[in-house]
C-alpha cells in the first residue's frame, strides 16, 4: 500500500503532519509513504506548481493525502504557474472525476454556524460534484470582438460523463437516506438539459432512490432556508464548486470538513483517490499552530475507507474525532485555545 | 408617461393588482396604463409566452411592471414555449442589461431568516447582475461526441459588456456605502479574467469606491458566514442568478423583495426598465389571497424612481411599506393572517 503525501502551502504541512501521526499510530502493515511538493512551494523549488516528479509519485500511489495549495506570494504569476493549477492538474491528470464533500453538523457545534441552531442541526448532506468536465476543462481563450477583447469558455457535458458521476451519486444515496437532488440550470443551459435527461435515465437503475431536480438558483436558496431537506446533491463541476462551499459555510465549522476526489482506477484495496480538507491554505495563520487538523485527519479516514479498504481504521479515527470534538479541546476556529498539535494529541489519545 | 403592466402567471395577477391600486391612489398626471399577457397565460391564449403584441407594448412604454411567470401546466412544453422564455426574451429584446436586486433585512423581521438574528440584521446589500450576456445568451446546442450526445453552451464577456455593467455597479456603490465586491471565477475562467481586468480598469474612474474581488465559491460561503460585509456585489449573469437568490434567502422574507432590470434607453423621465418581485409565480398558493403583495408594491416604487423620475412618490410608497411591515398586518409568509388585499389596504392607508 502506497500513500503519496502532498502537504502543499500555508497550513497544509502542519495539518497534514497531524494526520500522519495518526497514520503512524495505526501502523498498517506493508504501508509505504512518499512525500512530494505541490503548489506555491513546488513552484518556488522546482519552477512548477505540479512538478512531473510529484505527478508520477501520485500516479504510482494507491491514494494521495493532500494538504492545501495557495500562496499570496504567487498571486501575480501567470495563471499556469499559480498554485491552484496544481489541484486542477491533479484532477485531470489522475482522472479524479468524483468529488465527495460530506457536510454535517457536529452535535454541540451547531452554534458555530451563522444559521440558527435548529436549522444547522438538521444538516447532513453529501455533495457529489463532477470534477473532470464542465466549463472547467473546456476550450477557453481570448479573442477580439466588436466589444473589444472577449474572454470565452466552452461549457459541455456528454452522456458518458454524466452517467459516470450519476452512478457515484446514486450509489452514495443508497448508502445514506436514499434521496438524490440533481442540481442544474436546465431552463437555460443545453449542458444542463443533457445532464438532466441522463440523470433521469440512470435513475431507472436505482428504483430505491428518490430523485428530484432543482435549478441551481433555487438550490442556493434552499441551502440557506432549509438545508436539512438535502441528502445527496448531485451536480456539475461549476455548480458543485459553489454549492459545496456554501454547504460548508452552513455547517459553520469548516476546519472539520474533509473531501474525497475519486478516480476510475481500482487499486488492489479500493478506488484510487485524493483526499483533502475543505479549508484552504489559510496563509494568514500558517506556521502559528492555530490551524485545526481535524479536517486533515478526517481526510485520512476517508482515504483509508475508499482507497485502502480499511473501514475499521476509518471508523476508529472518526469515533476518536467525535470524542475530541465533543470535549473541551477546541481550536481557535471553534472559540477554543488548543493548538494544532494539542488537537492532534487529543485525537491520538482518543483512538482505541 | 406609459407603463405596461404584465401580470403573468400564478400569484402575478393578484400581487400586481395591489401595486396598481397604489398607483391609482397616487393619480400621477398624464399616466397611461397598458396591460398585456405574458408567460403561461400568454402561451395558452396566443400560442407564445411572449407574444409580439406584448413585446411591442413593452417597447412603447417608459417602464414595465411585471408580475411573475411560471405555470406547472407548461412544464412539458418544448423550451421555447415555456413561460421562463418570456422573461429571457424581454431581457434580450429590450436590452435590459442591468439587474438590480437589493436585499436588506427589515427591522423586526430578522427572525424570518434562517440565519441568526444578529447575522440577518446586518444584511444591506445590492446585487448588480449583468443580464444580457454570459452563458445565458451565447450559442448553445447538442452535438454527437465520443461520449454520446453532448450538450454545450458558450460562455463569454467582452470589455464593452463588462464596462457597461461595471459603471452601473460603481454608480450604485457611490450612492451607498461606497464598497463594491466584484465576483468572478478568474482562477478558472477566461471570461472571468476579462471581467476582472475590465472592472479594475473602470474602477479608476471611481476612486471613492473601494473595490475588492472574490471568487464565486468564496462569495457563496461569505454570504452565509457574514453577509453584512457586502455593500454592492457586481457579477455576471450566471453567478448573479445564484448569488442574488442566495442573498434573498438570507434576508428571509422573500415576499418583500423587489428588483429592477434596466436598459440603456433613456426615457423622457429616466431609464427604461422592467420591475418585478423576486418571488416567482408560486402556483401552489395562486388565487387564494395568500400572496404578499409588498414585493410587487416595492417594484412599483423602484419603477417610479428609476424610470419615471418620481423619487417623491417612490419614497412615499417605501415609507408606507415600512410602516405596514412594522405593524401587525402580516401575511402568511411572515407568520400572520392578513390576505393579499388586506396588506394592500394597509399600504394604502399608510400612504401619506
Ligand atoms: C482552487 C479552485 C480552482 C478550486 C475549484 O474551483 O475547483 C477550488 O475552489 C475547489 O473547490 O477545490
Ligand atoms: C427563470 C430563469 C430563466 C431566470 C434566470 O435564470 O435568470 C430566473 O431564475 C431569474 O433569476 O430571473
From TrEMBL, chains A, B:
Q: Does the keyword RNA-binding apply?
A: no
What is the first-listed, main subcellular location in coarse terms? cytoplasm
Q: Which UniProt keywords apply?
A: Amino-acid biosynthesis, Branched-chain amino acid biosynthesis, Cytoplasm, Leucine biosynthesis, Magnesium, Manganese, Metal-binding, NAD, Oxidoreductase
Residues given in the record as Mg(2+) binding sites: 217, 241, 245
Site features described as Important for catalysis, chain residue numbers? 136, 185
- InterPro entries of this UniProt entry? IsoCit/isopropylmalate_DH_CS, IsoPropMal-DH-like_dom, Isopropylmalate_DH
Gene coding for it: leuB
| Keyword Disulfide bond carried by entry | no
Q: Which cofactor does it need?
A: Mn(2+); Mg(2+)
Q: Which organism is it from?
A: Qipengyuania gelatinilytica
Which PANTHER family does this one have? Answer: 3-ISOPROPYLMALATE DEHYDROGENASE
> Which part of the chain is the Isopropylmalate dehydrogenase-like domain?
2-347
Which purpose does this protein serve, as stated in its record? Catalyzes the oxidation of 3-carboxy-2-hydroxy-4-methylpentanoate (3-isopropylmalate) to 3-carboxy-4-methyl-2-oxopentanoate. The product decarboxylates to 4-methyl-2 oxopentanoate.
Which family, according to UniProt?
Answer: Belongs to the isocitrate and isopropylmalate dehydrogenases family. LeuB type 1 subfamily.
From the Swiss-Prot or TrEMBL record, give the protein name: 3-isopropylmalate dehydrogenase
Name one molecular function that GO assigns to this entry: 3-isopropylmalate dehydrogenase activity
Q: Give the record's pathway.
A: Amino-acid biosynthesis; L-leucine biosynthesis; L-leucine from 3-methyl-2-oxobutanoate: step 3/4
Q: Which residues bind NAD(+)?
A: 280-292
EC number(s) for this protein? 1.1.1.85
Note on how the cofactor is bound: Binds 1 Mg(2+) or Mn(2+) ion per subunit.
Q: What does it catalyze? A: (2R,3S)-3-isopropylmalate + NAD(+) = 4-methyl-2-oxopentanoate + CO2 + NADH
Cell compartments where the protein resides: Cytoplasm
Amino acid at each position: 500500500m502506497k500513500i503519496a503525501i502532498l502537504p502543499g502551502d500555508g497550513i497544509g504541512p502542519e495539518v497534514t503532519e497531524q494526520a500522519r501521526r495518526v497514520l503512524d499510530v495505526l501502523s498498517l502493515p506493508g504501508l509505504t509513504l512518499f512525500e512530494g511538493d505541490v503548489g506555491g512551494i513546488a513552484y518556488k523549488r522546482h519552477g512548477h506548481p505540479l512538478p512531473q516528479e510529484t505527478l508520477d509519485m501520485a500516479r504510482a500511489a494507491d491514494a494521495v493525502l493532500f494538504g492545501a495549495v495557495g500562496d499570496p506570494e504567487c498571486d501575480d504569476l501567470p495563471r499556469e504557474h499559480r498554485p491552484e493549477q496544481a489541484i486542477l492538474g491533479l484532477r485531470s491528470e489522475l482522472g479524479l472525476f468524483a468529488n465527495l464533500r460530506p457536510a454535517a453538523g457536529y452535535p454541540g457545534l451547531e452554534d458555530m454556524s451563522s444559521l440558527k441552531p435548529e436549522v444547522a442541526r438538521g444538516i447532513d448532506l453529501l455533495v457529489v460534484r463532477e470534477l473532470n468536465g464542465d466549463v472547467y476543462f473546456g476550450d477557453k481563450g481570448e479573442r477580439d470582438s466588436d466589444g473589444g477583447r472577449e474572454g470565452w469558455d466552452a461549457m459541455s457535458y456528454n452522456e458518458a460523463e454524466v452517467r459516470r458521476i450519476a452512478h457515484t451519486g446514486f450509489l452514495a444515496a443508497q448508502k445514506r437516506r436514499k434521496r438524490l437532488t440533481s442540481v442544474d440550470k436546465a431552463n437555460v443551459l443545453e449542458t444542463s438539459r443533457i445532464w438532466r435527461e441522463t440523470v433521469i435515465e440512470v435513475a431507472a437503475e436505482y428504483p430505491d432512490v428518490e430523485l428530484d431536480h432543482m435549478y441551481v438558483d433555487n438550490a442556493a436558496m434552499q441551502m440557506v432556508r432549509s438545508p436539512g431537506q438535502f441528502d445527496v446533491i448531485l451536480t456539475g463541476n461549476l455548480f458543485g464548486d459553489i454549492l459545496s462551499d456554501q454547504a460548508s459555510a452552513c455547517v459553520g465549522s469548516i476546519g472539520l470538513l474533509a473531501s474525497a476526489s475519486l478516480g476510475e482506477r481500482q487499486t488492489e484495496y479500493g478506488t484510487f483517490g485524493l483526499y483533502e480538507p475543505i479549508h484552504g491554505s489559510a496563509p494568514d495563520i500558517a506556521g502559528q499552530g492555530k490551524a485545526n487538523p481535524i479536517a486533515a485527519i478526517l481526510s485520512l479516514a476517508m482515504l483509508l475507507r475508499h482507497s485502502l479498504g480499511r473501514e475499521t481504521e476509518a471508523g476508529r479515527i472518526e469515533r476518536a474525532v467525535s470524542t475530541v470534538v465533543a470535549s473541551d479541546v477546541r481550536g481557535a476556529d471553534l472559540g477554543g485555545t488548543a493548538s494544532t498539535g494539542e488537537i492532534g494529541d487529543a485525537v491520538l489519545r482518543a483512538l482505541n
